[in-house]
Write a structure and sequence with these properties.
Two copies of one chain form a homodimer. Chain A is mainly alpha-helical. Helices cover 61% and strands 4% of the residues of chain A. The longest helix of chain A is centred in the N-terminal third of the chain and has 26 residues, at 8-33.
Chain lengths: 510, 510
């Protein structure tokens, strides 16, 4: 039996590449948190050089020679070596390295450098344009990025749509054909549910969330919840950024960011829990495999399932607040005086079509994604032109959510993703929502008295379960295979739909 | 005439190398400011990979081929190209690239990676050991670093002492033989001056500096002074770190750090001004030449002249405080109530043998350096063993300053330098002191009413002069040549000695 030991010449090379990529991630983190504005252009060049180097090393002839000993280039599968088969970790490692290698091989190094530079620059222009509510300012960069991503899709190749080529980068195996039925099912049951809720006699008042809350205690409370979740601050940090995100340089250095608004208590709170879920995944990866696919997260959909599980299944549950609400009340005595847990629980679960995706409730959230999924398909396929985006955005907001943004900053400019070329990224958010409920229900079945544990503030039992079932495996299994191993089935909208129908049925007395 | 245009294939390569080095600098900055403790080992590996790559690219056969068209390898001088001579910038550029290339060429890439990794690790152990006052904890790392630096000296080659090989890295052309007479002259006049001061009837009371000062307004005042100096915060930042430092990733992103102690008002204040002086140099480099020696600072001695000029010639002058003291008094009304400018000026110029170099007065400072200069020579030459350092340190403190540290944290562990392999660095601090007064006196001659300008808070006129005379030239001239161009003479202890004799003669009524 061949084991990972045989692959050491390969893993040594991969480790070096990963270190270059990690360095680039540190530079990106800094760009979003502490970099002075004037440093943006130089930063774009630095990151581009590193990404170009990492790419060159991955597609080098040395790598090709190494891989061709062990992999059948036609199938991408490991072949017998020295007359013996491979063990499972080695087979998985080879399969995934081949995936990365053969994709990278299709992209010219110059293209990778250009794309990296343009994305880094566009991201900075986007931030500025958003703050000035000036879509026209961002438009030239968006055009460039879109053109480059269309080019990338051509390099990568696809059967039906160039958008499929981009989807696959974030979610291996995902296609328009596979995703569309999921969205159709969601739409078919969510839209009527939403209608029932808006027509319900129950009116939830969430105005307490918009009182004035000091920013420092908000952050401190976020830190407390992160600690309770098992996020390890000796291997992580919490900082501020315009758009909350998680980034990992190694399982020993995984950083999350949040934002704090004086008049939006839920913003810092749920972004801390959300990013904490991502952070736990990255801290839970197996350090021994760092640099190889076995030490890497498996897909953005699975990654998002971790953040959404913590944010929604845990953080928006009644059980969670039975433990944490008294502490929050202690922290904000004046503002939450006389507000009982039922009122608070209702407020944080208030369903209301709203403009901003990241602040959306669990139910309307997927409609925000559907809109983006449709728009970015059309953009990548050339059916929509970037200059028409604001109008199209607003029309779809009207169609799906019944509201129209009053500014592009709250509309088409709200998300950072397109600025860094992440077309095909959004659908993984909905996959994450679906997976999150699947996983959480399985955890509830397997962990004795999980609800009681959560209600007692003992969150580590859940974290350990997730680490054992999901985090530690890295890319050993493909996303559908992993979901099957953990829950007995691949992704399905049913658990999620049943969960929201039950939860909101109770809240709104439907 | 051949110009820089001819050298474009070279400068393009240099730029890529510089971007890798800049990325490594971002990683180091993060290590000292925000990195969680657990991330240290992975960080050391990331930096080592980047420095290894930069080294490989510098010593590549491609680079060799490029350079050999234009440079005589025997002399390192530019030769005629296509039948024409070079203009001055091109000749300087080639001279300095050759210096970097031929030095790098002597070091094996593996050695560079190992040295980088060990330095990054040792620096983290040093910080821990210092905080725990545990020299023994740091000893194994120090041994490793010293051994590597001795090895480096062998690779680089030298005529008289391996220490000379290391000195030259930081200060081109510096040798023990050249430095020793400077230190002898300083010692011969500083020791008697110090004696006269301690025997003077004037006793300066600096206890007001040790009252309780809130940390936030201390930082804000530091920021205000930095702004007045012309340090550009859109191209820079001020952060906290254990050991204040300045780092530059590009003239558009130059960062300084400081530390703040509640009971040491001078600490944050003067480290801000000091690092600000470094920061102005790096922000003042010519962006067009970024990545080439013409866009790089010329030596550590000249760099330090900029920080010491601002810290001492400006920041410890009476004129400076005529403008800034009322603002400081406004900031700390309670603590500075009834303290007039004369008392404050005396307090910040109080001469007193003390344990910590960076807190030392202008006069005893060079004795701290002399001690380090002697110790590190002996270490590198193998005459002293690392385990004997604490005893030797304390003995020399007794001999030169008449006081003995009560702990290694305040003794041999106080400075970060040896932990990152910077043997040969300390003497540049004394060179910086000497140059600083030479430059400042020249500025006083050339800028009309400079003292009045400073007393009116108009510091930009000085910054512009320094930029024109020093910063913008990068490595166009060697350090001695630059000093001659600016002041008419190479480094000399006379201006500095005259300056301190006059200043402290007045203060202590000698």
């Amino acid at each position: 039996m061949n084991t990972l030991t045989t692959l050491e010449p390969l893993t040594t090379k991969l480790l070096e590449i990963q270190r270059i990529n990690s360095a680039a991630s540190v530079l990106s983190w800094d760009q979003e948190t502490y970099m002075p504005a004037g440093g943006g252009e130089a930063r774009a060049e630095q990151i581009a050089v590193l990404q170009g180097l990492a790419h060159q090393k991955l597609v080098s002839s040395e790598m090709q020679t190494l891989l061709s000993q062990w992999i059948d280039p036609a199938t991408g599968q490991a072949v017998e070596h020295s007359g013996a088969a491979w063990d499972e970790p080695s087979r998985s490692l080879l399969r995934e390295v081949w995936r990365d290698f053969s994709r990278a091989k299709k992209l010219p190094s110059d293209f990778v450098v250009t794309l990296s530079r343009e994305c880094s620059l566009a991201q900075q222009v986007w931030a500025d344009a958003k703050s000035k509510n000036a879509f026209a300012m961002f438009l030239p960069n968006l055009r460039t990025i879109l053109r480059l991503k269309q080019e990338e899709a051509q390099y990568l190749g696809y059967r039906y749509s160039p958008y499929d080529a981009l989807l696959d980068v974030y979610e291996p195996g995902a296609t328009i054909a596979g995703l569309r039925p999921l969205f159709e099912t969601l739409k078919a049951r969510l839209v009527p549910l939403l209608k029932k809720i808006t027509q319900s006699n129950v009116q939830i008042d969430d105005s307490i969330l918009r009182h004035s809350y000091d920013q420092t205690p908000q952050l401190e409370f976020g830190r407390l919840v992160l600690t309770a979740m098992g996020y390890d601050f000796t291997r992580g940090r919490l900082d501020l950024s315009a758009h909350p995100f998680t980034t990992s340089f190694h399982p020993t250095d995984v950083r999350v960011t949040t934002r704090v608004h004086e008049h939006e208590l839920q913003s810092c709170l749920f972004s801390c829990i959300h990013e904490g879920g991502h952070g736990l995944y990255d801290q839970g990866l197996d350090q021994r495999y760092f640099g190889t696919p076995l030490g890497d997260s498996v897909s953005l959909g699975i990654h998002e399932s971790q953040s959404r599980l913590w944010e929604n299944c845990v953080g928006r549950s009644h059980a969670f607040w039975r433990f944490f609400y008294p502490i929050l009340q202690q922290t904000f005595q004046k503002q939450l005086h006389g507000v009982d847990i039922e009122q608070f629980y209702a407020a944080i679960n208030c369903v209301k079509p709203s403009l901003i995706r990241v602040e959306a409730d669990e139910l309307t959230y997927n409609l925000h994604i559907m809109l983006r999924f449709e728009i970015e398909q059309d953009l990548v396929e050339g059916k929509t032109q970037p200059e028409d985006l604001p109008a199209i955005w607003n029309q779809k907001m009207q169609d799906y959510l019944g509201i129209i943004p009053t500014s592009d900053a709250d509309g088409v400019l709200q998300d950072v993703h397109w600025s860094f070329g992440a077309f095909g990224y959004f659908p993984t958010y909905t996959l994450g929502n679906l997976y999150s409920v699947q996983f959480f229900e399985q955890a509830t079945r397997e962990i004795p008295h999980l609800e009681d544990e959560i209600a007692a503030g003992r969150l580590l039992v859940l974290r350990r379960w997730l680490e054992q079932k999901i985090h530690r495996w890295g890319r050993m299994f493909t996303p559908p295979h992993l979901a099957e191993r953990v829950t007995g089935s691949t992704v399905s909208p049913e658990p999620f739909l049943n969960y929201v129908e039950k939860k909101y049925g109770q809240l709104y007395q439907l």
